[in-house]
From TrEMBL:
Protein name: tRNA glutamyl-Q(34) synthetase GluQRS
GO BP annotations listed: glutamyl-tRNA aminoacylation
Cross-referenced PANTHER family: GLUTAMATE--TRNA LIGASE, GLUTAMYL-Q TRNA(ASP) SYNTHETASE
Native organism: Litorivicinus lipolyticus
Family: Belongs to the class-I aminoacyl-tRNA synthetase family.
GO molecular function: ATP binding; glutamate-tRNA ligase activity
Residue span(s) of domain Glutamyl/glutaminyl-tRNA synthetase class Ib catalytic: 5-95, 130-221
Assigned GO CC terms: cytosol
SUPFAM superfamilies from the UniProt entry: Nucleotidylyl transferase
Length: 267
């Protein structure tokens, strides 16, 4: 069954940019009768905010953005990531950032024997070209040994994300273009694990009046679920220029928007 997903990290509350991405991914999946997963990318226990994590489901539900099946939590899937790591072309590395910088980014034969804890990195390779649903043709990219398993013995985001796209049968990934560069890594990992990568479409990230990207890290205003109507109208106005939302409930407004949404290049 083809599937889409919305996969927030619980490093802060959802903001207008999160809602935009969630709405686009939801509309894209529902238009095609695809499964729609809610996946919580809580891979980093040090940055995990329990209150934010608990807020995602009620905030999305208040906006009519319902998902299929159980909510998926990356923190419960570590064994899958460890298994996948063993099937990838990797090397163990104890290089510090300082040492890597001194060597111009090149890892030497003595990588493993450097003092300190070790990370596991992807063996450097080329990522092939692909066409993004919003950003168009993307060139081949040299992947310079991204970390897949961190030196604090946690799976890295890139590995967890790639494994989950496979395990959940994700066929379309719609997300903010702050993750565009990561996509070559994700596609390569998925290919090395023997699966065809999903289609990707990266939406332009919303910015605040000062021109900064809206993000949980720079304290973007959290979404108020009580203001669901205004929030949904703003998201749909951005995604479907000229569209007038119609309906008395969030579900009715989204149903109507299904007839008008299109994922156009450079949106
Ligand atoms: Zn190294």
């Amino acid at each position: 069954m083809p599937a889409g997903r919305f996969a927030p990290s619980p490093t802060g509350r959802l903001h207008a940019g999160s809602l935009l991405t969630a709405t686009a991914a939801w509309l894209h999946a529902r238009q095609r009768n695809h499964t729609f997963w809610l996946r919580i990318d809580d891979i980093d226990p040090l940055r995990d905010d329990p209150e934010s994590k608990a807020s995602f489901a009620p905030v999305l539900a208040a906006h009519g953005l319902c998902w299929d099946g159980d909510i998926q939590f990356q923190s419960r899937r570590t064994d899958l990531y460890r298994d996948a790591l063993g099937r990838l072309q990797t090397f163990v590395c104890a290089c510090s950032r300082k040492l890597i910088a001194e060597r111009g980014g090149v890892h030497g034969q003595d990588c493993q024997s450097a003092p300190g804890t070790h990370a596991t990195r992807l063996t450097p390779c080329w990522a092939d070209c692909y066409t993004d649903g919003c950003r168009g043709d993307q060139a081949m990219t040299w992947l310079d040994a991204p970390v897949l398993w961190r030196r604090d013995n946690q799976p890295a985001y890139h590995l967890a994300c790639a494994v989950d796209e496979i395990e959940l049968g994700i066929t379309s990934v719609i997300r903010g273009d702050d993750l565009l560069e990561a996509t070559s890594i994700h596609r390569t990992l998925i290919q090395q694990l023997g699966t065809t990568p999903p289609e990707y479409a990266h939406l332009a990230v919303l910015r605040n009046p000062e021109g900064q990207k809206l993000s949980k890290q720079n304290m973007a205003t959290p979404i108020d679920p009580a203001a669901w109507y205004a929030n949904l109208c703003a998201a749909l106005g951005h995604l479907i220029p000229g569209h007038t939302p119609e309906g008395a409930t969030a579900e009715a407004i989204l149903d109507n928007a299904l007839h008008h949404f299109r994922l156009d290049p450079l949106k």
